[in-house]
Amino acid sequence: MAVLFWPKKGFLFRWLRLSRLDERVCLEDSLKLPKGKQNLAGLKTLFDVEIGKRVRVVEISRVCQGAQRRRLLDLGIVRGTEITPALASAVGNPVAYEILGALIALRSRQAKWIRVESV
C-alpha cells in the first residue's frame, strides 16, 4: 500500500499488487518463548528435525499464506502426514524431505512454518 500526502488535497491511498511471490513480505513465525518457559505442546518445527528422524505434521503456521500455503498443501503436507528428512545440501538449505514416497526440497523458511511431533 502506498500513502501519498498533498497539501490542500489530502491523502491518497493506493493499493499496489505485487506480481512476484518473492516480492511479498512474509514475517517469520517465531516460536521464541521467555527464558525458563517450555513449549507446552512439545511441538517443534520441521526445520529442527534431524536427518533420518520420522515425524508427523501437526499444523502449518498461519503465517504461511497464499501460494506458499497452497504449495505445501498440494505437496501433501497436511495434518497427520509423516515426513522424514532425507538429504541436506552442503550449506543445509534446502533440505530434501521424504513426503508420501517422494523427495521434496524445502527451504529452511518453509520448514519453519511446519510444526511436527515425533512418531
Radius of gyration: 19 Å
Major sheet size, sense and barrel closure: 6 strands, antiparallel
Looking at the structure, what is the overall shape? globular
CATH-level-4 superfamily name of the domain at 41-119: Ferrous iron transport protein A (FeoA)
Number of strands: 8
H/I helix tally? 2
**Low confidence ranges:** 19-40
Structural class assignment: mainly beta
The CATH class of the domain at 41-119 is: Mainly Beta
Report the span from N to C terminus.
Answer: 44 Å
Mean pLDDT: 76
Strand content: 25-35%
Strand order of the largest sheet: 3-8-4-5-6-7
Named CATH architecture of the domain at 41-119: Roll
How much helix, percentage-wise, in residues?
A: 10-25%
Give the H and E element order.
Answer: EEEEHEEEHE
Query: Looking at CATH, which topology of the domain at 41-119 would you report?
Result: SH3 type barrels
